[in-house]
Amino acid sequence: MFEPVLLRNIDVPDGHRLSTYEAGGGYRALAKVLREHTPDEVVDLVKQSNLRGRGGAGFPTGMKWGFVPKLADKPKYLCCNADEGEPGTFKDRIIMERDPHQLIEGLAVSAYAIGAKTAYVYIRGEYVTAIRRLERAIAEAHEKGYLGTGVLGSDFNFAVHIHCGAGAYICGEETAMLESLEGKRAQPRLKPPFPAAAGLYASPTVINNVETLACVPHIVMRGAHWFRGIGPDKSPGPKLYCLSGQVRKPGLYELPMGIPLRQLVEDHAGGPLPGRRIKAVIPGGVSAPVIPEHGLDVGMDFDSLAAAGSMLGSAGVIVVDDSTCMVKITTRIIEFFHHESCGKCTPCREGLNWAVKVLRRIEAGEGAPGDLEQLEMLCKGIFGNTFCALGDGAAMGLRAALVHFRDEFVAHIEERKCPFH
């Protein structure tokens, strides 16, 4: 039986309070690194654990920290991406609402490792409860000496600030988030330079996801060997999976990285609703290409899903049963990406607008021969030709739907109506 680590406090009364967090061993990791480890040793420990970013890209966290120059004439910053705008994803919200001190300790340890004195938590403005509890937790941590000047009697000074976003999906992209933090319009930056060299205010900056940072104190206390002993060696550790859609037991599950997708959906989430069969699963938020039912025997980790033509992304697992029209789902997803595109890149701005018009026409029973080929052409024009991954995610999702469920698109065009509704 897998013992939860990241979610150990979510069902504990007052789990968001400092006293509860301390009673469970909270802030011991921070005290340990300040007392026993140099910043470089903490970076090496995280490298040894092979912790990969839980925000979507899966980049090795220790390696990212190692890119920050040790000697810099500007201050270093740590930014936490808590925007969580990916549909089907709610794991970071639960951590911030139910166990905010876990995030704060992760921020403090990480900031110590990279030499930062200031951290910003960029959180979506709709997360009102999470914002209030984070604010309260920061105040509690200051009062007890876990934040502020001379943390726990050391020479480490550290402050955490909250910045509320305004609901723009594009701010989940790290450089667009930095632009927003600086008070500019949120649009992705051209890279290089990368944030580690020139990020917030053109200073060295590390950007990590909430779940990624929450893993850090556990690695410090339990060791890199413990972390690597969970799941596959190339993508180890505990993982939070968000289950939603047409399943009996939707919710947030903490399980080992690499668990088979079929086991996750059928055993843990209870399988499809009564009288229904699973048609497909979106494994990592709507940016991840859909996987048909026959492909569900794949591990939920970065490498296995990539080999299967999809991606882990945010681990927002959305289950679709056989009562649902894939043309309708695909249309809604591309409408979302079109609406949330910042408009900076012509392929994304114009290509998604064109794709939405074609998909709406097909869904309405007004499709024409050549429409599917036109959609494929649009995917080719968008993919790999934009500043950020928004256009890539949209193109990959549309392309996968056309490959795996082409018969439904053809039926809409030939029958001049939706066969499901």
UniProtKB/TrEMBL annotation:
Keywords: 4Fe-4S, Flavoprotein, FMN, Iron, Iron-sulfur, Metal-binding, NAD, Quinone, Translocase. This is NADH-quinone oxidoreductase subunit F. Residues 327-372 form the NADH-ubiquinone oxidoreductase 51kDa subunit iron-sulphur binding domain. The keyword Isomerase does not apply. NDH-1 shuttles electrons from NADH, via FMN and iron-sulfur (Fe-S) centers, to quinones in the respiratory chain. The immediate electron acceptor for the enzyme in this species is believed to be ubiquinone. Couples the redox reaction to proton translocation (for every two electrons transferred, four hydrogen ions are translocated across the cytoplasmic membrane), and thus conserves the redox energy in a proton gradient. It comes from Rhizobium sullae (Rhizobium hedysari). It is an enzyme of class 7 (translocase). One of its GO terms (molecular function) is 4 iron, 4 sulfur cluster binding. Belongs to the complex I 51 kDa subunit family.
